[in-house]
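Everyone, study these two lines:
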Amino acid sequence: MRTEDISTKSMPGDEMEPTFTPPQKTGRMLVLFDAQQVDKGKEILNEVNIQLAATKDARNGSVNHRLYSELGVAVIRPDKDQFNAILQLARASSDDGSPILMMAEETVIGVDPKVGVKKELTTNYTWGLKVTNVIKSELSGKGIKVAILDTGFDLKHPDFQNREIIYKSFVGGQEVQDGHGHGTHCTGTACGPRLLKDGIGYGVAYEAEIYIGKVLGNNGKGDDGSIIEGINWAVERGCEIVSMSIGGLVAHGQEYPDIYEHIAARALQRGTLIVAAAGNDSQRELKPAIINPVSYPGNCPSILAVGAIDKFYKIAWFSNGEKSFKNSGEVDIAGPGVDVYSSWPMNQRRYNTISGTSMATPHVAGIAALYAQKTRTRGKDLWELMTNNAERLEDLDSKDVGSGLIQAPKL
């Protein structure tokens, strides 16, 4: 068993850039159990007076210790003596294979959309639906469950009044109603209407079952525990796709977080594909350009990381993409991410046009639902089907766009 700091872990000899600010820490710890020994792991925690609450009670009262059983992960708030005792007990059982594989500090991450530009579009569809060939696909995502883990959703939005939406908030003291806008925008792209009688069609999987998990607060930020709880909820409910337009800044030379990697790998085995944003930390317009590594948790090998292009098939100026060494993570595929028009909370403007790899991610998630509907493939097979059928972008580096631009399947 080992401990790691997922915000500052680096290769021996590597140094953080002076401008890198590690994410804020909550004081809690993430605990990864051996998938076959979760009960034994719980026994170790019980020995140091840490009792894990069921996920459904995780945000009630002053509960500080909670278990996400579908993923074999817990979030705890140990004091110093409890932490040291856990280490000793875990190491003492290591000869037989410790039930606790690793521990890491919980951090706060969030969203970073680029400034919105309100534009009046003179078309029936957004440019993102066109370049991904969604408008030529007869598929709708019907029968497929898509979870959007974000800032929530505007449940009063008129474009979704005839849709069944299952929702839950994992943010203490906040309802699922979106007080930010980011989650409503991402939901619209992934699962909104593809054709509107009196408006612009902007959604991909317009008949998919929508699962909204509010894992980020109305300030656009959330902790690892809320995000993991949302993933656990989506896996438990059989969601084939999880869309996470969420990311934390990664330093050059920093490895992907092992706990998130184990979580994603376990989700894939259960048939749930996690799609996440590559991040918006680059400044490619500068000379020389600044290209930052893929954000976490999208930099994990078992999470499909999405970079962003513009309508001219150029890499977005903000899109992350550097792969500096073997375990630093990479972009797997690209989607439309500049000047993307989609739904927005009604108390603000109903629609909005914003940019980010956050906007590219739900394009990919929605198209994943179309592939899942057509082929019945799930998990890693679904991932490979999408990347194998992406449009190759020969003028762009694979470090930036992975296998290329996502393309919708035909019936």
Observations:
- Residues 5-19, 56-62 have pLDDT under 50 and may be disordered.
